[in-house]
Structures are given as C-alpha cells and as structure tokens.
C-alpha cells in the first residue's frame, strides 16, 4: 500500500453549521474536518497540530483496529496523553480493511463541539467487492447544540443535574437548518429561511437516472439515534461498520451513534422529479426538526422541490420497528464465524447511579473516570511506575431487578481494567436497566476500540444463562458498535488478539462523560516500544525523565 499524508490543524473557528454562527472546533479552518480517502493496505500518516489555545486534543480513528499501533488509537488517558496546545503528534497506522469509517475527538466532549470527519477506505487494487455500483455519495450525520460543550459539561456535573436536552439541529455533512425546513428554505418562506450561507446550504446528491449508487452513511451524533429514508426509493444494506453484510432491502434504516452503513440505491424512479432524503430522531421524544437533503436526478435543477410528501419517520418509540431493522443485519455469506465457545463471559450491567449526589452512569457499579497517566503506559510500564489495579467484576448481582429503578443507586468512580488473556475468546453481555426514574430505560450504542466483534444475541428483559444455547453462531454480523434497546441486552463475542488497551463505551457523548464505559486490555507485554511523545504526561513522563541518558 501507499503512504498517505495529511496535516490537520485543530482550532476554534466561527462557523454556521445550521445558519446560526457559533464557535466550532474545526480542522484546517473548516467544519467538518477533511474527508480522508485511502485504500485498504495503505498507511495513513496524520500530523495533528493542536491550535486550541488552552486545551489538549486527540483524534480517534473510529473503526480502525490499530493492529500493532495501539498508541495511535487517539483516546486521551487510555492510549496516549492529550496533545498540548501548540504541539504536534503524528498518528501513523495501517488501514487494514475497506469500509466506511470516521474520525473524531476523544477528549472531554470535543466530538460534540464539532471535531470529526469522514474516513473512507476503498478496496485494495485488484480486489473485488461483493456488489457493483456506478457512483457513490457520503453522508456523515451528526447533531448540533447552540450551547457550548463547556456549558453542557457544567450542567452534567451540577446539582441539580442539567441535562443537555435535545439538539437544535441534525446535521448532514456538517450542514443543517435551524428553525427552517429545507422546503421553506428553498421557497424562501420565513426570515431565518432566507439566510444564504454556503456553510449551511442544503446537501444535494447528484445522480444520473438508471444507475446504482452506493450511499455511505455514518453517524457521529453526540446523542441522537436516527432514521434515514429516501422518498420512493428502497435501499439495500450491504455494509455495516466496515464489514459486508447479507444484502437486505428496506424502506428506511436506523443508525445509532458510532455505526456506519453502506446502502445501494437504484435511480430508476421518475427522472423528472427530485426526491427527499429525510433524517428523523428515534428513541427520544423528537424535538428536533427532521433533517433533509435532496436526491437530485440529472438534469433537474437541484432547487426543484420534490413533488412527493416527505418520507414518514417511524414513531420515535416504536422499538419493535427498530429491533426488527437491527436484527436483520447479518453477516454476508463467507464471513468468518465466531469460535463456538468462549473462554470468559463478562456481564456488564448499565445503570444510572449517584456519587455524592451527582448523577452518573455506572457499569457494574463503577463510573468510569480517566487517569492522568494513560492506561497504555501504566499497563506496559506498570512495574516501573508502581501501577496496580483492582479487578472489576465479571458479573452483577443475580437478584438485580432491571425493570425497576436501582434500590441503592450509589456507585463509585474507577478506572479499572478488564485484563483479557491474549488470544482468548471473550463474550460480553451488555445488560440495560431502568434509569433513576420509574419506567424509563434508554438506548445505548456501545462501541469497542481495537476490535470487530460478532453480535451473537439480543433479547428483552434480563439475560439468562440458558440463553447462551440460543446464540447465533451461524451468521452473526461483525461490527464495532452494538445497540442495547431499553430494558434489553446484547451479547458480543470477540477474540482478544490485538495487544493494547482499549476503550469500550456507550457512544453517546454525555453518557460517556458521565462514566458509561470501561476499559479492556490484552497482550500488553507484546507491545513494541511506545513512542515517547504518546506518554509524556503523568507517571510515564516521570519515568521517561528518569530514563534519560545524561
Ligand atoms: Cu467513536 Cu471511543 O469512540
Ligand atoms: Cu448511553
């Protein structure tokens, strides 16, 4: 493969993602960051310069497994020290697999502040994909608040708790409309709709009639679960999270934060018309307007309004509708199957809890906080810096009632690590539960760094040991993000074959910020020398100083 070089300068910029000007974290003066495009087998070299005046930064390459380069995973306090203002860090790693990915900030809530972009890996030369298409378009979905992430973080760590609320706008490729539908915008209806600003101009996908297009769709939302539909066009899902899936044709797709899909569409509809692409909110009372883009059939003008009604978003709390979509995503024939048995099962109970009166999320009663020395360094050089860790639990109490608010909601903070035996097969059961308030349980899309996993089971209510016999070991999809539905559970299986320290967390930014995550490690002794620049903070900085030759 080739070496592909990029230079990213991360800094605050004024930008108008939804036509209202705000402060955004941009890359090279733009929002969203540049789309990286490479081929499988290429080496990506991204020189990241931090031009934020007073805060650190890191960039995580979501979905890239970082075989042999765990220090390039871009998770602050886990894989590296945050890059200080005015400093540069070079991420260098191999893109081992074609697919639709993205990158984003992984420090504080910088992702929600706008630090993200697309990362598309094409098949290697000479390789074949299991489907054909004539052209492609890319849609990176996100959600946007007018309040700064600093105000959001303050609210989350206040008594009384102040939730971030629903986003003002859903963005498509960083563009949306606040208080103005795209239709109204095109017709110039109201004042806010008359604003003309190229930063928030509508997304138009130009297509030729009677062709097949691949749409790459990824979600880096801070909070929102989304549903995407295209007027009059069905979609055939062919890829999920960088893995091929058994083609399945649907009228709309659900997409959770951290997920990506490729769908194929055929432009065989009446070509004198354009068509709506609409994106609505799932799983939360929708207070945010449906986002719209235009599928523009050549040679129509892109501003020709589609003549049909908007596609209808399924009802926000129709969870059986959502489940039926998610359960339909299965591995393409020929995908490697999981080992038939696992060596270890870890059951993780997700609860909303309190610590000293502050609302948190906890996993087996531990709310994740990040240490000042990156875990990768503590684990690798533990003997030199005197690191020790208490083991987190592999299960939660048998009598825990997932249908009721926790009886004792108190939990504690921790940054403990699940140490996995190298090359062992691990099952993780993610168990959802009721929140602190009665009759509420939320959606949580969990994302694992450093791995793809097989999603071998889903269910409602509390997971029972006997359900192991019903796991799907025949065609479970390989993914890097799995959703747990309200009051439900999901089971994943993976092989701990990637030396490193890996985050595993809910991809909802405020949930992670409130502790909804945990950390796994494996094969740490096998890691080659970690670049010093990645470890120049906390006790590893001390160690590096002591080791300096005179
Ligand atoms: Cu895309 Cu740890 O996240
Ligand atoms: Cu969550």
Describe the structure.
With 550 residues, the chain is mostly beta strands. It folds into three domains: 127 residues, Sandwich (Immunoglobulin-like); 205 residues, Immunoglobulin-like; 199 residues, Cupredoxins -  blue copper proteins (Immunoglobulin-like, Sandwich). The strands form seven sheets. It has a six-stranded mixed sheet, with no helix packed on it. The protein is globular and about 70 Å long. The structure holds CU-O-CU linkage (C2O) and copper (II) ion. The site of copper (II) ion (CU) has 5 residues, from loops.
Ligand types: CU-O-CU linkage, copper (II) ion
State mean pLDDT (0 to 100 scale).
Answer: 95
Estimate nothing, just give the exact number of structural domains: 3
Query: How many strands appear in the DSSP assignment?
Result: 32
CATH class (first level) name of the largest domain: Mainly Beta
User: What is the CATH superfamily of the largest domain?
Assistant: Cupredoxins -  blue copper proteins
Cofactor: Cu cation
EC number: 1.10.3.3
Family: Belongs to the multicopper oxidase family.
Domain Plastocyanin-like: 10-124, 137-299, 408-519
Topology readout:
Blueprint: E1 3-15, E2 22-27, E3 36-39, E4 43-50, E5 59-62, E6 88-94, E7 99-105, E8 116-122, E9 135-144, H1 149-156, E10 169-172, H2 182-187, H3 191-194, E11 204-207, E12 212-219, E13 225-230, E14 235-240, E15 243-250, E16 252-255, E17 260-266, E18 275-282, E19 291-297, H4 319-328, E20 344-355, E21 358-363, E22 366-368, H5 375-380, H6 382-385, E23 412-414, E24 417-420, E25 425-431, E26 444-448, E27 453-460, E28 478-479, E29 481-484, E30 488-495, E31 500-506, H7 509-513, E32 517-522, H8 538-546
Bound molecules: CU-O-CU linkage and copper (II) ion.
């Amino acid at each position: 493969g080739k070496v592909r070089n990029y230079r990213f300068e991360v800094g605050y910029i004024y930008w108008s993602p939804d036509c209202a000007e705000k402060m955004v974290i941009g890359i090279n003066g733009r929002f969203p960051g540049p789309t990286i495009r490479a081929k499988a087998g290429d080496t990506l070299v991204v020189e990241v310069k931090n031009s934020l005046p007073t805060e650190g930064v890191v960039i995580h390459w979501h979905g890239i497994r970082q075989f042999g380069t765990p220090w390039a995973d871009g998770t602050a306090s886990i894989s590296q020290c945050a890059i200080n203002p005015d400093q540069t860090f070079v991420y260098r790693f191999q893109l081992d697999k074609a697919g639709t990915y993205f990158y984003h900030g992984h420090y504080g809530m910088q992702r929600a502040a706008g630090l993200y972009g697309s990362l598309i890996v094409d098949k290697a030369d000479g390789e074949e994909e299991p489907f054909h298409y004539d052209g492609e378009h890319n849609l990176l979905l996100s959600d946007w608040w007018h309040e700064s992430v600093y105000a959001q973080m303050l609210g989350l760590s206040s008594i009384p708790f102040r939730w971030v609320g629903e986003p003002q706008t859903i963005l498509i490729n960083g563009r949306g409309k606040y208080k103005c539908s795209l239709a109204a915008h095109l017709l110039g209806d109201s004042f806010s709709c008359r604003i003309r600003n190229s930063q928030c101009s509508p997304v138009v996908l130009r297509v030729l009639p009677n062709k097949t297009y691949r749409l790459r769709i990824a979600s880096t939302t801070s909070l929102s679960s989304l549903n995407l539909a295209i007027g009059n066009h069905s979609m055939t899902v062919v890829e999920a999270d960088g893995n091929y899936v058994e083609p399945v044709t649907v009228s709309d797709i659900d997409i959770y934060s951290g997920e990506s899909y490729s769908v194929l569409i055929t432009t065989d509809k009446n070509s004198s018309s354009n068509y709506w692409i609409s994106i609505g909110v799932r799983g939360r009372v929708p207070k945010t307007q449906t986002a719209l883009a235009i599928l523009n059939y050549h040679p129509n003008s892109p501003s020709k309004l589609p003549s049909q009604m908007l596609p209808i978003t399924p009802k926000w709390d129709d969870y059986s509708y959502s489940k039926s979509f998610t359960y339909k995503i299965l591995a393409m024939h020929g995908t490697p199957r999981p080992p038939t048995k696992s060596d270890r099962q870890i059951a993780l109970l997700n609860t909303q809890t309190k610590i000293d009166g502050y609302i948190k999320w906890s996993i087996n009663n531990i709310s994740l906080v990040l240490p000042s020395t990156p875990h990768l360094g503590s684990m690798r050089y533990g003997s030199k810096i005197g690191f020790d860790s208490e083991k987190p639990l592999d299960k939660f109490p048998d009598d825990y009632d997932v249908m009721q608010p926790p009886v004792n909601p108190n939990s504690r903070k921790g940054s403990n690590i699940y140490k996995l035996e190298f090359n062992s097969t691990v099952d993780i059961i993610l168990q959802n539960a009721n929140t602190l308030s009665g009759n509420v349980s939320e959606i949580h899309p969990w994302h694992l760094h450093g791995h793809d996993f097989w999603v071998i089971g889903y269910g409602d209510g509390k997971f029972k040991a006997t359900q192991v016999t019903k796991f799907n070991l025949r065609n479970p999809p390989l993914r890097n993000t799995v959703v747990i539905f309200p009051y439900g559970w999901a089971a994943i299986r993976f092989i701990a074959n990637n030396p490193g320290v890996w985050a595993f967390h809910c991809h909802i930014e405020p949930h992670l910020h409130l502790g909804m995550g945990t950390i796994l490690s494996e094969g740490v002794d096998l890691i080659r020398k970690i670049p010093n620049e990645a470890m120049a903070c906390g006790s590893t900085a001390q160690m590096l100083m002591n080791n300096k030759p005179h």
